[in-house]
Design a protein that fits this description.
Strand 7 and strand 8 form a beta hairpin. An 8-stranded antiparallel beta sheet has the order 18-19-22-21-20-17-24-23, covered by helices on one side. It is α+β, with helices and mostly antiparallel strands. The chain starts with a helix and ends with a strand. The chain contains 12 helices and 26 strands. 22% of the residues lie in helices and 27% in strands. The chain folds into 2 domains: 150 residues, no CATH class; 211 residues, no CATH class.
């Protein structure tokens, strides 16, 4: 701020980092008069200016002529126009020594991928996604990437990656085309891929995780007319709750993502996680099988944002849900983190927690958590056989200072259980034994939930969630529909277990 007025008058080019000066050279060669660089156009030590301008950053890239990407540079002091290795090799012609020599270019490893430190950063994800064209400067050459082609300076075309496909889809959507993504399931699968790939990238400041994806979210929000709640789409929110953490390569090891040490989003949103996560695609490819006895329903959602809009930072949020709530007690056991299946009396529960449960978690939670079944999906395998799988959330008491409200629960992970044909009819009030494999924790079913929720507690204004009805029976003839309804009516759960809880 001290030199702001001076910089508004003029900026000596010699005082700028080499990356900036190299970008000026490219812009002048292309006869481009104006250039936008965040470090020059945003006051770096002014949080208010940063928040205001970062919201508009997506519009800058979306409406630019060209984005210059110093893909190989890991520091501003390192330019990207240095001399590069000579990759051309002369080969002789054996038929006629008097003929002109032939030259071939030696292909580098991963020549069909655009790699570099810049492409590992979170902020550059939406910059690359929204820009109509990107000029990449890498160690082994220059790459041109637009919405129809990706080619290097020797004319070789690269295989389409997820960012290139996404850029094409975004362009098609803005003009009402893109048949591949016109269906609801197509959009859901596509968006899941977007956020999964984004979360594999690194952010210098973890609190920027929501801002760095806000531009793409705003674009989709306009296209789908949907509401963006805690970085999940309100439309069919039930499906978006079923994310699970996944492994990320780090220092040659496969490492699970961890829950963020700072509050950024509620526990039921993937945005609360530092690191990568994933969705099982089949939950978007079809709607769940209607099962009234599950009684699961999302009642309402409350979001308190420090700044409004799809890119606003969240200060507090909770989700009010109703369903069959089974109290479970878990104990920490010694077992391989690779063990994923543990037997129960009526089937197999397979759980994936948001983060490993450590002894401190166990002591502070006194070994108790809850499982709330959400929905049943029909799955298939390589042999074409079909079976049913029950999906649910694992909930527990908050043990941190972010959400001190008495009686609230937080998402610990997800749980699934296969429903073989022999077990279509479940005993009323059956005991479930649930075991968590990836963290090495066992969950044993016990008594019903008895949380301390005060009816006199003043509730903030909540947003009612209107879930779309399942389209599972869509296109199914009446006879087959009746058969399915009869089979699903055989699934009986203890309705005395139904509770309404808030998840923070």
């Amino acid at each position: 701020m001290s030199n702001l007025r001076e910089r508004q008058e003029s900026i000596p080019e010699s005082t700028l980092p080499q990356v900036f000066r190299d970008a000026f050279i490219i812009a002048r060669r292309l006869n481009i008069r104006y250039i936008w660089i965040d470090a020059l156009c945003i006051v770096q030590d002014d949080p208010e200016d940063w928040l205001r301008e970062s919201v508009l950053m997506s519009q800058v890239y979306e409406n630019c002529t060209l984005t210059i990407s110093a893909t190989k540079s890991n520091k501003c002091e390192n330019g990207f126009l240095q001399p590069r290795d000579n990759l051309e090799q002369e080969i002789g012609t054996y038929l006629d020594p008097n003929e002109r020599p032939l030259y071939v270019r030696v292909a580098q490893s991963n020549v069909h991928q655009i790699q570099g430190p810049l492409n590992d950063r979170g902020w550059t994800f939406q910059e690359r996604l929204l820009s109509p064209a990107v000029l990449h400067f890498t160690e082994d050459g220059i790459y041109w990437e637009c919405r129809s082609i990706c080619v290097n300076d020797s004319g070789a075309r690269l295989h389409c990656n997820v960012e290139l496909k996404a850029m094409y889809a975004l362009e098609e959507w803005s003009f009402g085309g893109g048949e591949e993504y016109e269906s609801a399931s197509g959009f859901e699968i596509f968006w899941a891929g977007i956020v999964e790939n984004y979360c594999k990238r690194a952010l210098i400041f973890p609190q920027d995780k929501l801002l760095a994806l806000s531009g793409i979210a705003q674009r989709y929000q306009v296209r789908t007319d949907g509401k963006y709640v805690a970085r999940l789409w309100e439309n069919k929110l039930m499906k978006w709750l079923l994310w699970q953490r996944s492994k990320t390569a780090a220092w040659g090891l496969q490492v699970f993502g961890q829950r963020s040490s700072i509050y950024r989003a509620p526990s039921w949103s993937w945005a609360s996680l530092d690191g990568s996560f994933k969705y099982d695609r089949f939950i978007f490819e079809q709607d769940p099988v209607p099962c009234p006895s599950l009684a699961f329903q999302i009642q309402s959602c409350f979001i308190q944002e420090e700044s409004p809009g799809a890119c606003g930072t969240i200060s507090y949020s909770h989700l009010t849900i109703t369903g069959l709530l089974y109290e479970a007690k878990y104990t920490i056991i010694r077992q391989s983190i690779y063990q994923e299946e543990l037997h129960t009396e009526i089937g197999i529960w397979r759980c994936m927690m948001n983060a490993p449960i450590y002894p401190k978690d166990y002591i502070e939670r006194k070994g108790y958590c809850w499982i709330i079944p959400i929905a049943i999906w029909r799955e298939g395998n390589w042999a074409g056989l079909r079976h049913l799988r029950l999906w649910g959330l694992v909930l527990g008491r908050p043990r941190d200072v972010f959400q001190p409200l008495h009686g609230d629960l937080m998402r610990l992970g997800i749980a699934t259980m296969s429903l073989p044909l022999d077990y279509y009819r479940l005993p009323d009030g059956a005991d479930y034994t649930t075991e968590e494999s990836s963290a090495g924790d066992t969950l044993n079913q016990s008594n019903t939930f008895s949380g301390h929720f005060s009816d006199n507690e003043k509730q903030p204004e909540e947003h009612k969630i209107d879930e779309e009805p399942s389209s599972f029976y869509s296109g199914m003839n009446e006879e087959k529909k009746i058969q399915w309804e009869e089979r699903m009516s055989e699934l009986q759960f203890n309705k005395s277990m139904i509770r309404t809880v808030r998840v923070v």
